[in-house]
Amino acid sequence: MKTDSIAIFPLGFPWETEDPFLFCVHHLDHYPKGNSDMGPDASLSGRPLGNDFVIKDGWRMYHGTTIPGFPSHPHRGFETITIVTKGYCDHSDSLGASARFGNGDVQWMTAGRGVQHSEMFPLLREDAPNTLELFQIWLNLPAAKKMAEPHFKMLWNKDIPQISDSGWELRLISGLFSGKQGPEAPPDSWAADPDNGVLIALVSLEPGAVFEIPAASKDSKRRIFMLEGGEIDLGGQTLQTGLGAKLPASSLTLKNGAGNARFLWLEGKPISEPVAKYGPFVMNDSDEIQRAMNEYQLTRFGGWPWPYPDNVHPREKGRFAQYPDGKIIEP
């Protein structure tokens, strides 16, 4: 479905993005109450444990076998931006960094030359359901930064700008909007240079709200992804839940319909370099991918300093971040 320079497309798994973004995944799992091990207090019989991506009873175990999530795995050549709006994520990595974050917090990790990390979803409540909503965005690194030192950064909910007007609210995770600047990106990120115009935002609209997307650089690529709501009018095109839209760089007025709506907005100047991908590695050519695989086999990107590949933190521990230098921050 296409009119002028607006193209509407269905959302798959993962979501289709454009350079400089590699892709985005949206996890929404209605987990039951937790058991004593912080896993689901429910039978796991019939699930393909270790590779459970089927939404059975409203939730998935992913690569976890007792606790949902993604046990230790490597990355090289790009960044992960993880937004947790509901529930919690427990992070551990080969740098020695760790964290528990959620309820609006964001983690930004530059994999650079190579890092291992785990992302587990502990079900902390034993007396009620544990809903999880999480977005993970992969942002590419240019060739000059692909072998940068890995970097770990937490953006706590309280430090993420919230901008609102008549009937809408925007949470600005990266970039510039309405005169306000999002949190500082890691030093080697494509988003660290304001000329690259990287913008990441979650936008909520009340019924009938009007929202203006301002003009961007003509080189920028921008997409929005409709998470919930009835219909949004995009200058004659209709965007519904489960659809995304590729937008022009020109300004655009969005008009919401009768229900509440929410969408993710990604924008940025393309890196415009060749992309070679193999699983968790993103480089510029196949030779670099092969070297990444060989180096991981030899070095494990620094090894794994945690007792379990699906490491989680004690149930009673609150939100926190421990940085590679040992510094601990609690929001």
From TrEMBL:
Any single Pfam family the record assigns to this protein: Pirin
Pirin N-terminal domain boundaries: 61-139
Region forming the signal peptide: none
Domain Pirin C-terminal: 203-302
Family: Belongs to the pirin family.
Entry-linked PANTHER family: PIRIN (PTHR13903:SF8), PIRIN-RELATED (PTHR13903)
Protein name: Pirin family protein
Organism listed in the record: Robiginitalea aurantiaca
